[in-house]
Records
---
Amino acid sequence: MINSAGVGTWDWYIDTGELLWSDLSLEMFGLAPGTQMTYERFLNALHPDDRERISTAIQNTLERGDTYDVEMRTIWPDGSVHWAASRGRAYFDESGRAVRMSGAAIDITKIKEGEEELQRARAEAKAQAANFAALVNAVPALAFFSQDPKCEYMTASHYAHEVFSLPYGINVSMSAPQGERPNVVYYDKGRPLTAEELPMQRAAATGREFRDQQLEIRYPDGRSIHILGNAVPLFDDAGKPRGAVGAFLDVTERKRMEEALSLANERFSISLRNTPITVFHQGLDLRYKWIYNPLGGHSVNQILGKTDAEILERPEDVAMIEKIKKEVLLTGMSYEGEMTVSILGAMHSYHVNIDPQRDAQGRICGLTCASFELTERKVVEEALRQQRERAEFVAEGSDVGFWFCDLPFDQVIWDKRVKQHFWLPADDSPVTMEIFYSLLHPEDRERTRQAVENSIRNNQQYDVEYRTVAPDGRHKWIRAIGRTFYDETGQPKRFDGITMDVTARKRAEDALRASESRFRDLAQNLDREVQARTAELRSRNQQMLHAAEGLKELSGRLLQIQDEERRRVARDLHDSAGQMVTALDLELGSLTEEIRREAPQLGNKLESFQKLVQQLHREIRTTSYLLHPPLLDEAGLNSALSWYVQGVAQRSGIGIQLDVAEGFGRLPRDLELAIFRLVQESLTNIHRHSESKTAAIRLSRGDRAVSVEIQDEGKGIAAERLENILEGGSGVGICGMRERLRQFGGELQIQSGGSGTRVSVNIPVVNTPTESGVETVRTVG
């Protein structure tokens, strides 16, 4: 049924790049049935002027879920240009990532040609206006005359007789006897009229004039004409109606033109409605004469009759735009480009087309302009760029590779790190599951194959370690973590995941197993520690997998993972490694006493070993305190900040004043940690950049918010740098502050000048009294 309606269909699987078109869709692009399509081939088949616009529409559909509704020009292999309209939508997986896009297309070439023909007809109508007026004078109109109050007998002009196909001189009245009436029917707005309802009969019956009467005359063979005219009554000497006269013009062609113009205007309005496209005309004085779909916050009435200087705020914007428009008026050359201007206090980016408008003699009489709003796309592009940079940064730092497998087509996509893990060059050569298995160590193939099948068939977590073998016999240990994704019917469609090179860890495990027997207990403890760390790495890797599926909350999660990792590493160093080193110190002490008795000459050497172990214990404790102050969990934010401020003051020589409001109390652990990191980052910036000798930190707490203020008396932040920070283009440290505060709905403000810099933070909280009367705190964000 779709084919019979002239509608072609298409389906695009984004992960695999596969693009399926129906034969009718291929025909619209002048392609043979069965042609294998790709996204690049689709873009190349478009008119060069339409490629960027269509690519942008597709990108908006994939990123924001917009409805894909476009008209485009296609270039056929024979060089001819055709028009197609396409509409579609995107489908997203559980993480919000676009995985598929499908829709339908229809050939609108004839419609576009009709519209172009209408435009040509309008131009020709203007040029022929004088000829049409002369033609009206030369050719008689439909003129009617009746001296009968009932208009039962009516004479008419030659042209009227020609219209009715009647011999000249016979009765043409629709009120004549039934057999003598013209074989036509009069209609008014689709309703058939009786003889008494016709203008001539009504004028003769009422003595009133009936002007601008528009009627349709239909013939038995299906033809029809439209007439427009007036009927005026005739009066006798007593002032009573004695008949009527009427004159009507054949306006059939004008009626057709009006309907065509109305249809064209309706199509034009529909095509621009709810789109970021503005179309307008300006005269030679650059005043707006007509505008459709105004953007930027202005209404039509606020723009018509005005110039750009009366609408735009910044003189530099006015100068730029007026220079371009005057150049178009002077040279007759069209302009196309992008520009950014300030409108009602906000910056807007547009793609602009400015063309000269010409009259019937070809003289330039104004400008026709079209602008497309690019502001939102620019913001999205910048956000996407930042997210990609962050993802690449994470991948670089963690040596993690990503792989994606399209199960129905057995197509595997590996990034450059996965190919490094498998000793392959970083090229675009295809990979299949069988190639993957062939690159594994023979002893690991069946076990890995079973793990893959369990994940696909039983939806089990895929977490396996195997060896990859190089052509020269070398091998790496790789850990792979992944999962299977299913379609709406429950059929597996994708098998995606990550790989990590764990060769170093495997070698470390082998070294531990080769240790001497006297350290076996310690090795077993270390092995358990390795297993615990491996479990933590598995948890981190699972989080990394979720990050690969959706990068929207990557920055916040990275900060949370960093804090948790610092806390865990600090605790593990203090509890596990510290206890092991203490045990080793005790064992060495006991061993030293025994050796002093048995071999005094070795006592000094063992004693030096024991001192090194004690020094290692102190280093471990110091490192764990720097990673995560235990006071923060045990005594709270006030004690942790006092300890940290004292240490910074001693190391940097900066006089730091810490002022915590009385009764400040405890906050949720995550919030206390966020405030501690905020103060830590601020003091680090003061020490590195401000050259200030003093700093003040103030913490206060109200019923609904916690406030933090850090101020120095340094050289301040340069104006350009401060503007960049306020616009969100700051460095890693300030971005980290914002990300931490965003989790709690907090707001960061930075004020800087020649007398110093002040960082102010306001975090909304809610104090909830419990039954015991003690207040608990929860964050609002």
---
Amino acid sequence: MATGKPPNALLHGTLDTLILNTLAGGPRHGYGIATYIEDASGGAVLVEDGSLYPALYRLERRGLLEAEWALSELGRRAKFYRLTRQGRAQLVAQTAAWRQFSAGVSKILLAQ
């Protein structure tokens, strides 16, 4: 990618939606969220801790996520996040907005 910016710079503004979408499949801890996004994107989207955890805390403060401590699959204590009803509604709205935006950008980029 020759944008002059690291590929993850494109992630800005979409991370919240990616997190909400990831949690639509069920509760996950932070590492599980980051791993899912990386795997589902074929390695194209890497979410670093410095971006992930502030986003999780922000979403929790906004009432879009709830969290509780539990044991991970490795038997370690981890904070698991899950969508609230408000989070599901926000995911629907953000997904619709993303589809509209990406369709518009595609029209421009593919017009040549």
---
Amino acid sequence: MRLSKKSLSLAVGTVIIVALALVYSVNLLAAIRRDLVYEELQRVAGKDVAFDEFEVTLLTGLGFSARNFRIGDSPIFAATPLLRAQELRMGVSLLSLMLGRIVINKLTFVEPEFQIITNEEGVMNISSLQDRRKQLVEPPKARSSASKREHSSINFVVTNFQIKNGRIDFIDRSVRAPAEMQIKRVDMNIQGINPNGRAKMSLAASLSEDLDQDVRVEGHLGPFVRGKGWKEQPVEVNVEFDSLFVPLLTRAVPFFRDKIPPELDIAGPLSLRAKLVGVLARPQIVDFIVKAPILGSPDYNAVLNGSADLSTNGVWSEAQLKGNLRLSSIDITRLQGTTLFQDVLPIELSGEGEVSLESVIEGTWDKLRLGTIVRARKSEIRYGTWLRKPRGTIAEWSAKISRQDHRFVIHESLLTVGSTTINLSGVYERGSRPRLQLRARADRSNLSEVIELFPALQAFRATGTLHGEIVASKVMIGESSWNMNGELEISEAELRHESSRRKIEGLRANILFLGKQARIENAAFRVRSSDIEMIGAVADLAVPALTCELRSADLRLVDLADFPVAKSDRLQNVRLSGKLTSENGTPWLRGTVSSLGGTLQDLPYLDLRSQIVWSAEEISLKEFSFRALNGSWRSRDVSITGTDKSQRLELYAQLNSVDLQALLTSKFPSFKDRIEGQLNFQGEFSAEAHNGAIKPGSLEGGGETRIPGGTLKDFNLIALMMSRIGSSGSAISLQLSPSLAELARFKDTPFENLEALVILDQQVIRTENLQLSTADYKIMAAGWMMTDQVTRWNGMLVMSVRISQELLRENKSLRYLLDRSGQINLPFRVEGTPANLRVRPDTRIIAQIVRRGSLPKTIEPPVIDKRPDAQEQKESLPAELEQFLSR
């Protein structure tokens, strides 16, 4: 045991002595050859090497330490050092040291700061470091053999290089706006540096302020090629960027400023992983993958992976590219703001929602080939007001695209919308006048899917087929419009309006595209039993307006509308000329309609003309006119509005010289033998209709009626009146008035003029100012008639002066009823039905005239009530009047 302790103590003492001897030897060597080490540093790194302290180290490894180490930069770059380090550690080879030589085989920079600058001429300070070093080192002086031996005992044979917690400042002054970037927390280790072999390297650093080391590089360098710059040395490294911010990259590296469009809005960090093989100046980038959140997305929605071979000349435009690009959840609204969208696609194309893209890329940038699939099911896409793909409808474009310099070729590809497929091909040519040409071909596509893309036809559902081919071209700058040529054919089609359920059957049409115009030919269809032909033209394809003409030899109105029309209504040889447009997704037709003859409301007509405005919810006829019943019919405005099966009708009507008896025979047969003459009418009416019939009680309105030179058939007011005056018998006393007796003999009442303001209200026809004029008397009345012909009137019989004088000679008491013109005004009342009218003097009004001594200013209409009048209260009259009006 004692021997063991002595042995241990001896061993420890020996180690300490050896260590002290080693330190003493190294310090002695350092002191002796300090200047030689310094000179060797200058020879390796240049004359501008400086440090504050130089000492031997053991705790951090056997070697030397130069504190506050720095290498000055050339004045043409900066006044600050190119490199500044808290400490430079130089490790030495123990074996060489024991042989009396100092071989520095390891360099470690502790907390270094590298300043890498590219000046205005594009020269980089580290690139010129070797040339500058050779120029700055003083020419060698003649040395003695002893001096040569001393220098030969100090060598830099670095096999291991390290950086601990360093920082690199990149400054590029070769561009108009100087670029700067700072890399922090740099840790780098290169092991096994060997001119004839490869060195293993690893690097970790931080580009982001708030993240730890988000940059990692691992791999091998070399074998090193003598006489070549650092860009020409072979490498094989894996590079990873976890959070590469594009604004930082484009600000610091001018190369990327015009390569990454700012409108892509890559606000979040990029993720990049790649493998570099070859030399740095002409690398092969294999197995790279880039992930980025573009267009404001919070997640990675753009992924690009593949390879890029720059080994030929290092020029990106000539690099061989292979890869896959995937874009998901791309906001169309944000995409529309990009230069790519605005330069390549028409300005009329817009939308909301999201699209996705998958593309296979191969070739060089100028000779690129792409296989692309674009999907847009969850988005709404519009082209002006012509086309609209709604959300939820499948939309997919599968295409092969190739680039040849400034020319992009879209090879035969497939566009799918719903169940409709379109073969699409084309060319896009860049330049001062970029131009796009597309060829679209549809082979018997389903019309039901195609029609959903047209907003003007959204209210319809369709069956049938569409086929044809169109070539469309457009200059993509300025206000130029599409130039389209080709033909589409619609056959075996049926359109059904969803709300009204009305159908267009047997539709066929040829649509010809002629440059900026289009023409519809050979179009024909059937609505129920009515056959219609159509021709049309679009003057400018940029404006969705169709000028058209529709013709029909026999058009039944009941086939076209739900509003009230008679089943017999027919328009023969009808022609409609107008313009069809789309406003806020609703079709509107404005034009003129004419018909040589036909039947309306069971009345034969001639020469029908009108201006028409039609939409799914409104029909308006302006200046509507025709000839019927030997007269003219005119309406300034007819309006029918409503949806589904309910409508509201508004009508302004004017009739001139219409055969009244013929009109009554057709529309009111119970009155056909009651009146003759020519009807003149002007008025306004409104009504509500449901299921093609006027709703009871909804018809309202009124107008001025005038019948000149007519006859009241089987009606003589004088006879009916005189039957209640005079004797109690049924015959009129002739001695009362010969003229009245003569008038009472006739069965009918011819008149010079009949006028009235007629009001239709709640199934009652009424008037407050009816006037009937004959040569011998005038009748003024106010009253009403219900639909069941029950009627009641209050009136005034005004005798002519001649008849009034005759009556006064025989009946002096009638002087009470004289007006200032010397005419007798005899109030009367009428009630009953046209077949059984009861007429009698209105003794109540007569009594009021006698008491007041004046005639009433107006005639009050009777109360609208079917109940018979209550028995009149007996009024006190002068005896002679009482005798004349004996009841």
